[in-house]
Design a protein that fits this description.
The protein is an all-alpha fold. The protein has 16 helices and no strands.
Length: 379
């Protein structure tokens, strides 16, 4: 529906039209980060967070890629902002809007499906209101999320009954392929990619090499369930090893500089005049500006994670309730992305929210430097 809408508005039925529209909207989505930061910790923090997010090669690359990752991230970020407003202003309308936007995000990507459960828990733990108001706001949030998601769930239950696949397929594949991409994957007989999974199923079903077989067709529900059972048997037999594999995968989602982590994907690249400009524009002020921007991006990439960690500590000390509400989303994505195969683009909302904490750290450091400078000038 999103693609059809863009095709109708632009009159151009091509991936280029989709990319152009998403580039513009993704650029404006930085304002969501500004709004979240300003609502949570003040305008200075919000503006700094938006500036750093605007310099992020990861967010830029994902916004320029015409698929569902960036649009889903816009909706989740909008939901986070509404969640914060619901807590600050104690209005049920914002809670309903947060749940509705989160439900829409689940239509695009399944990753945030259970995020509302974390939000309800964070609502109960971190909001300073009476229990009755907590129940009303968190209940409105949960109800609106489930209501928006329900057409997908009902459709799947009706179409595939008596087999049950309420939210679609892929959990078994993610677990099994996640084991296959580790160093011990071959030891457990786990495939590491779509084609290897299909070939494994082809051998198990005794099909001819030219027989039609897809990742989830035919009999996709049963096959995906079997993949999940094989993966869980390996995890139960080697829990400590798998915990280490999860930690490595988690680190891959926080590795913004240097060589990309295996299987997780690239965190983007710094812009340069040679990469981004045509040959006739690779000289002059424009090329110099692009190259200077790339240098700034390189510095920000190496400083991003330390600033985020410092910012989290400062945020917890400054306002642990608000920090806890934002961190609920961060922890949800870290947990779900670490369990099975995942790519860095799946966690774009988490990546964007972490810049709010980076903004807090930069704000604190700038205040420290300013105070020292004033102290020296007085002497």
């Amino acid at each position: 529906m999103w693609m059809a809408f863009i095709y109708a508005v632009t009159g151009d039925r091509s991936p280029v039209s989709l990319q152009r529209v998403q580039l513009v909207i993704d650029s404006l989505s930085v304002l969501l980060i500004v709004g979240i930061g300003a609502t949570a910790f003040g305008w200075k923090t919000g503006l700094l967070a938006g500036l750093m997010a605007g310099l992020s090669p990861l967010l830029a690359l994902s916004g320029a890629t015409p698929n569902a990752d960036a649009p889903a991230s816009w909706l989740v970020l909008g939901a986070v902002w509404c969640l914060l407003l619901a807590v600050r202003r104690r209005r049920i309308g914002y809670a309903i809007a947060a749940g509705g936007l989160l439900g829409l995000a689940c239509w695009l990507r399944v990753n945030p499906l259970l995020l509302f459960v974390f939000w309800v828990g964070a609502f109960m733990l971190f909001t300073k209101v009476g229990w009755q108001r907590k129940l009303v706001l968190s209940g409105a949030l949960a109800f609106s999320t489930v209501l928006v998601i329900s057409p997908v769930v009902i459709r799947n239950l009706v179409v595939f009954y008596p087999q049950v696949a309420p939210t679609g397929l892929g959990i078994g594949w993610n677990l099994w392929a996640g084991i296959g991409e580790t160093q011990r994957g071959a030891e457990f007989g786990a495939p590491c990619c779509d084609q290897q999974v299909i070939e494994e199923d082809r051998r198990a079903l005794g099909l001819a090499p030219d027989a039609r077989l897809g990742l989830f067709f035919p009999d996709g529900i049963r096959r995906d369930r079997e993949r999940g059972q094989k993966a869980l048997s390996v995890i139960r037999a080697h829990p400590f090893w798998y915990a280490g594999a999860m930690a490595q995968r988690l680190w891959g989602h926080l590795k913004f500089a240097g060589r990309p982590a295996p299987n997780v994907g690239s965190a983007g690249f710094n812009v340069t005049s040679r990469k981004c400009l045509s040959p006739d524009h690779q000289g002059g002020p424009l090329a110099f500006g692009v190259t200077a921007l790339g240098v700034i991006q390189s510095v920000v990439r190496y400083l991003a994670l330390p600033l985020m960690l410092i910012g989290i500590a400062l945020a917890l000390r400054k306002d642990w309730r608000t920090a806890g509400l934002i961190l609920a989303t961060v922890f949800y994505y870290l947990l779900t992305l670490a369990v099975g195969h995942s790519e860095i683009r799946y966690g774009l909302p988490m990546q964007a929210l972490l810049f709010v904490f980076a903004g807090i750290a930069v704000c604190w450091l700038s205040t420290k430097v300013k105070r020292r400078w004033w102290a020296r000038t007085k002497w």
